[in-house]
Amino acid sequence: MKNSGLKAIIQRSVLQIVRRPIYWAGFFVLPLFCFFLLAGLMENGLPIKVPAAIVDRDGTALSREISQNLAGMQMVEYAESCESFTEARHLLQEGKIYGFFMIPEDFQANLLSGNGPAITFYTNMTYFVPASLLFKTFKTTALFTKAGVAMSVLDAVGAESAVALPASLLQPVNITVRGLGNPGLNYAIYLCNSFIPCCLQLMIMLMTCFSLGQEIKYHTSIQLMQMSGGSIVKALFGKLLPQTVIWLVMSAFMTSWLYGWNSYPMNGSWWWFGLSQVMFVFAAQALAVFFFGVLPNLRLSLSMCALLGILSFSIAAFSFPIESMYGAVSIFSWLMPIRYNFLIYIDQALNGIPVYYSRIWFVAYLVYLIIPFTVLWRIKKAFVKPVYTP
Amino acid sequence: MWNKFKNSIASFFLVYCREFKLVLHDQGIILFFAFLPMAYPIIYSLIYNPELVREVKMVVVDHDRSQISRELVRKLDACQEIYVRGYAADMNEAKRAMHSHECFGILEIPEGFGRKTGIGEQANAVLYSDMSLLLRYRGFLVASTNVMQEMSAELQLQKINEVAPLAATISSGDLMSVNNIAMGNTSSGFDSFIMPGVVILILQQCIILAVGMAGGAKRANPRLIGYVGVNQGESVLGSMLGQMLCYFTIIMLPAIFLVHYVPLIFSFPMAGDFWEILAFLTPMILASICVGFCLQSVCSERESVFVLWVITSVAFLFLSGLTWPRYAMHGMWRFMSDCVPATWGVEGFIKMNANGSSLAQVRPEYISLWVLTGVYLVLAYVVQRWIVYPQLWRGPKEAASVKN
């Protein structure tokens, strides 16, 4: 037969992709949409100017000074002024502010008479990121205020020599926390490097199963098997190779956009990180083929990929560390290729350490390339005698 | 006129009843309507259930080896956030430990640390933190700030007594206490922060996926899927409303499970009134069904929804403002986030559920949801009338020929 061989299969596969809009959506539109959304949404790095309020029940020179200090901080913006705790709580419940700083009645008087008044600040922890930023700002301001108070108390008792050693008196012990690789706490750097490849993994797995399942659904797999001369390896290779090329181009585009154009941290070697991105695409495809072999049914294999692909965002421990999870849950983290991609990213791009320390993650990728071979016979069976179950 | 009205009411009920049968016969749709909203939140909550990040491993490089440097390390180790893995001889050894993933932070105490506190200079230590996960960094930051404050207060008191022995009589104890109160999510746990938002997102996505798949079933060749998925009466609006009511009835139970029982099982904040929450979520469910109807325009087969819609969950999670607040979004993204029912659903539900807002306090969100319901209903009608219906008229003929 003239219309056979690897070249013909590849041609057929390319034509299939070009002809159907759903492939365009799945291969290009959706991954790129998610990519630009994630990279564009958090462009500023940190959501500064958190809306907050000050409840000044004292109304003295000191309390106004504290208010002014707070208003000068970069992180917060005083959206509302309130007269009472209840008013501030209502604003918080309505979502107009994320927290408030409370200066109690007779604050100045109690302070000067040594009655030890309390400053309390409230943060709405249902919004983690803005509330954490507020917490930091409020705490800093409160501590500075306290230090100022200590100075004036010393002044009051006539200890002039105190003026000579302010820094050590205000803060005798200081611990500076330095974030390695992302000193500005850039939220985009923290999230995009894990979430974007995870989106890619989800789409790779879905599209692989979808395109294979379509062959069975429309009984075109018989033609495919004839073209490959009955060899399932050849059929799958020809079928998936054009997709591999597309995913590699997409991955290269995203990587260069982030680490090249947007200067995300790349403290290690481009080569190792690039190798990881390439092997990641192979691994995700191979895993999808494996799932398809286990469940050679369009809907079930897609459900499986969707379930695990979406769960990957949590189970791969991008935000909540794996050692804090329950042991029985955390082992599932190691099932998905994205975990290894994330670990290699941390080692090779963020921290830039010798590749020796990430060697095992690279080996893990190789395992994914082997497992589809265990189920090839099932795919072959399904391809030769296609049965579509909805 | 009267007859036409009567007909549309009749077709509405006919469609409503027939749709149940269709849904129950379709395993795929049942999976989205029943299994997904039941299983997903449980799995998700289990992953994050430990809530807090405790005992993050740290290695200490102590060049000082004084009483005060040891006290610093002891105090850090006593914090719930930090676990001191051990001492390293020098920075190289500590780095090796960090590179081999045995610790996530290095505390370096410089030589002369203890001496400086003695002679009244500021003593500085540096904690280098791995930045792969912000929760670990946050733990280091919180613990070191607390320890720093406590030790500073002690030293301060000593010093004040040195320079002015009378000062202690003026203020016994703390000059001014500083308190923080976490509202809503009172334990500051990660699960309690993310899950209430995620359950609403799951609710929306389940509905849209199921309705989208029903659309694919309508348009698929009946020979392929083994039954006729078409259930359209004469009146477009009548059949649409009939199907909407059917989906609404089915999703009610999973929805109650999601917003009431999931928080109950995992002890998430539950400060809202159950009936008010249900009243709030009604327009969100209706709007999601309408979005599903719109999605039917591009679902030419049942499985299309997987490719076209699953990934949007990630986009909607970010657009909802749960992780990245909405006030910091740029114009275009903000508008996009306004168009998603779950954005308003998540915002309102979190306020009611965690912060105890009443329905009146989430008025803007509630109104937005009804507006979205209206907009999507009109859009859904347009899609059904001019895209889905014309294709279906070809469908039944084919179906009829199959039966013959």
Give a description of the structure.
The complex is a heterodimer of chains A (390) and B (404). In chain A, strands 2-1-3-4 form a 4-stranded mixed beta sheet, sandwiched between helices. Chain A is elongated, with a radius of gyration of 29 Å. Chain A folds into 2 domains: 6-43 and 186-384; 50-170, 3-Layer(aba) Sandwich (abc type-2 transporter like fold), CATH 3.40.1710.10. Chain A contains 16 helices and 5 strands. The mean pLDDT of chain A is 89. Chain A is an alpha/beta fold and 390 residues long. Helices cover 63% and strands 9% of the residues of chain A. In chain A, strand 1 (50-56), helix 3 (61-71) and strand 2 form a beta-alpha-beta unit. In chain B, strands 2-1-3-4 form a 4-stranded mixed beta sheet, with helices on both faces. Chain B is of the alpha/beta class. Residues 399-404 of chain B have low confidence and may be disordered. Chain B is elongated, with a radius of gyration of 30 Å. Chain B is 67% helix and 8% strand. Chain B has 16 helices and 5 strands. Chain B folds into 2 domains: 7-49 and 187-403, no CATH class; 56-170, 3-Layer(aba) Sandwich (abc type-2 transporter like fold). Classes of the chains: A alpha/beta (390), B alpha/beta (404). Chains A and B meet through helix 2, helix 4, strand 4, helix 6 and helix 7 of A and helix 2, strand 4, helix 6, strand 5 and helix 8 of B. Strand 5 of chain A pairs parallel with strand 4 (123-130) of chain B.
